[in-house]
Amino acid sequence: MIGNLVYLYLLSPLHTGGATQEGNLLGIARESHTDLPYIPSSTIRGKLRSLTPETERNQLWGNTIDDVTGSSSDTNLTQGTLWIGDASILWLPVPSLSHGVVWVSSPMLLQRWARLNGKSEKAPEPYSNNFAQGKPVYLKDAILKSASLKPTSDLKICIPQSEIGSIDRALILPDQHCATLIQMSLWRQVKVKLGEHKTVDGGFRYEEAIPPDTLMYLPWGVTSQATKQAEESKAKFNQILANNAVVQIGGQESLGRGFVQQWSGIKQEVAV
Amino acid sequence: MSFDPRTIGKPVYQALQELRDEQEQNQRDEAKRKERLKEQKNQAVELYTYIATWGLLRLKAEEKAISEDKKGKKEVVQEYFKCLEILAEASKLSGADGLNTLVDMDVDDYLGLTGLGLVLAQEFSFWASAVYWDIKGGD
């Protein structure tokens, strides 16, 4: 199952609700096997469906419960001609005292991306980076000493480029440390409830989100339904992407959350 | 069998339940007892966001800095480091030497311990709701 890829560069924090709320924390959706944040395919699919011209919706995405129960002649739910996968993190920004912002990834994340991207190269080793030049790197409250860092110039092939993507300081961390750093670098907003006299009513609560400037990607393709319409459906989907360079995904649109610059990876594959 | 899904939950539940029992049994002043229990609950819930934002080192320093009249908060932070010490099979994490232990740690070990510490803090958050189910307000 190798699909085409769509890249998502987050312009603002992105919050997709998690299954549970623990303590005072409103968490986000997480992959069950890595615990890393992701965007569920259903969230993205719903958004893309709403951006599709009405006359093409049912062909590309299938019909809806309303079509079956309403006055339409449909009697069954049908599958559309396109499928959408979950969006995974590829590079995530971490604050750094020494370098402003450093984007981190890990061999596991890069290999997953390479697999879906149809590439077979092995991911670069942990601590490979394209910017440290013999100096230590400060990441959150950890310092990576220069002796442990591996300068490399060929990280560019791991960074999908676009006119917006400005990932110029990239560092590959071991899988386990990358997971911890991602956890610590999530966007968290403290919230309080104010009473009528603007005094704090109760305690703090926190909302998590994937931070802006994160680069994510999702695979997509045509379903077995497509058969003769495969090429037509692909063309229509690419047109939807081309018409909507910036989309809003997830909750809290009214607070400016979830705005994402997206671009199709097809052109990218040619460029690399 | 070495796989026990209670490995992290058990010491956390026991620690919080003991803290609560101690207040229930020894604190005669009702207002003070309620205040302490509320402090304990809020601190247990707050651990995760504190560590995720500021890191283990600062939490350890915070343990020293919390004043004696916020004893409930202090006790939870102390119990947290005791649990972390047991789970990570690390020595000298709880108690007065803990700050130096964290400072001297290799970066790999420190990041690894932080990962475990975050999971442990989530467990505290969960058990706070269960153990202090009747304590309302400020959470």
UniProtKB/TrEMBL annotation, chain A:
CRISPR type III-associated protein domain mapped to chain residues: 8-260
Entries under InterPro entries matching the protein: CRISPR-assoc_RAMP_Cmr4, RAMP_III_fam
Biological process annotations from GO: defense response to virus
Keywords: Antiviral defense
Domain of life of the native organism: Bacteria
Signal peptide, first to last residue: none
Transmembrane segments: none
Protein name: CRISPR-associated protein Cmr4
Organism: Neosynechococcus sphagnicola sy1
UniProtKB/TrEMBL annotation, chain B:
Top-rank lineage group of the source organism: Bacteria
Protein name, entry field: CRISPR type III-B/RAMP module-associated protein Cmr5
Coiled-coil regions listed in the entry: 13-44
Keywords: Coiled coil
